[in-house]
Structure prediction request, 558 residues.
Amino acid sequence: MGSSCKEEGYLSLENMFHIDRNEECLIVDSFSEREETDDVATLVHSTSNETHIYDFHIVYSFSYKVPVLYFHGYQSDGQPLSMDEIENDLPPSSSKILRESKWTYMTLGEHPYVRRPWYTLHPCATSDWMKLLLGGTSMKDLDISSYLLSWLSVVGQAIGLRIPLELQQRSVKHPSASCFIINN
Amino acid sequence: MATTELCSEEALRFIWGGAIPLQIHLHESEVTTLPPPPPALILGPRIGYLPLLVPLLKPYFSSTLPPGVDTVWFDYKGLPLKWNIPTGVLFDLLCAEPERPWNLTVHFRGHPGETLIPCESEDNVKWSFINALKEAAYVINGNCKNVMNLSQADQFELWQSLMKGNVEAYQRIASRLKLGPIGEDCTLKTGAGQPRQALGEADTAGSSRVGRIPVRLYVRNIIQDLDDFDEATAVDSWDSISYINRPVEIHKHEGHLLTLRTALKALLPEIFDDETMPDNQIFSKEEGCQVTNPSFEDYETPNSLRNVETEEASIISDSVVLSKKPKVKLIRIQGIELDLSIPFFWVVNNLMNPDYFIHICVFTEASPSQVLVR
Prediction:
């Protein structure tokens, strides 16, 4: 992940609808690369009154040399969600970790590009678990989309993001890049 | 150079002893008594953070506050202040011309959640500091085990020492983290004087060593043609300041050549162009104007740390500006305006913050197409 690039931006996935804990319908259609936030239309499925909308951004950390997840959620009227409301939307395993490690797991941080407070998953352990996940595959042999997919398969669990098999099959070029498949 | 000579004890005390005289006004919308309370005069340690001053401020204003729940925040001329930036850095950055005392407004209500991360208690600040320390450790060592492995007691002690400004207590614990100092070649020295191999992706059986140094840059552009920073327009939005949190990477064999200028050029190549900023020029000033550093007026300054150039007579420079490219006007670290030719290892060892980051304020001026000839 150490490529130097002249143009810097981040990956974003926006307008993800979260209905309720048991009926998660967050579906990743595609990621778009951008430097500013534009609205991206994604799959919507909602019959509930309490629809929360999430935006997810993947930003590269120069300090940790790994991708970092930034996200925020809001009500359908645009009102930002509180930490408690977001915690309720998280998968049970994740909210448990959040309760136990309040300051080191998921916190509010300044989004490096949007320059506003967004929630973020702390990246200090990322490099370690990515090494485990990728096994013996050297970073040089792995293309970025495979790396990101592997990364997302773990990070996605923290926030309840499910990656459809089709996306995995389309993007995975390297046979040894592995993914956790999330079953709800 | 022995470890003790790489960074001076004097410098450490200077950094820890630095403070900004603050005059804190309660926001008028929160004043419920007549007459309104006078502003609080308080010293804000440079290496500290504004929310840590709240226990001193709250009792001062509590009798006039409207009822409700507090989330304290500060503003300077309307700009909400990011509390996770050390007080000294905020002052250096936002007061182009140092203001004494620095007039700030405190709010106990109406926290702007869209632009500011809420700071509900000292814990927010503590964890922000610990996370910064972890990040610095990660940059330097490739992992943050040394910080994570600190015992609860040590972590507590480290934080308390920062809050109380107790540099000896801080050093007792921080020195065990072995995050510094760096040698003249900009690599980390352990106590035995042996270079520690930094873990970088370029590492191949130790043949090429890449050292990394934690740096946080704050870049502010001042309107062109200013004789005096006094006339600089106050910052009205954080969008006009570029914040760059990126390590400086050093290849071992080049480390001893690294000056402040070359380090900054690696992070801001467009600004540190060879044509716009020769080494012997600090910045352009109007003829006859003494270059001084007002930060030193209010407290003692070890001579060794004073920017040598400020002792001399006015700096006259020939500046020929032919393009719209921004050029560097000045660099400020810990309130000191630095000559760009100073060796980077010295800057890092002596001027870093307790979080092991070197926080650098860069002032640029984007001049229109014109030629200024002396």
In short: Chain B touches chain A at residues 82, 84, 113-118, 123, 127, 130-131, 134-135, 138-139, 143-144, 148, 201, 214, 238-239, 243, 245-247 (CB under 8 Å). Residues 191-208, 276-323, 369-374 of chain B have pLDDT under 50 and may be disordered. The CA atoms of residues 152 and 262 of chain B lie 40 Å apart. Residues 122-141 of chain B form the longest helix (20 residues).
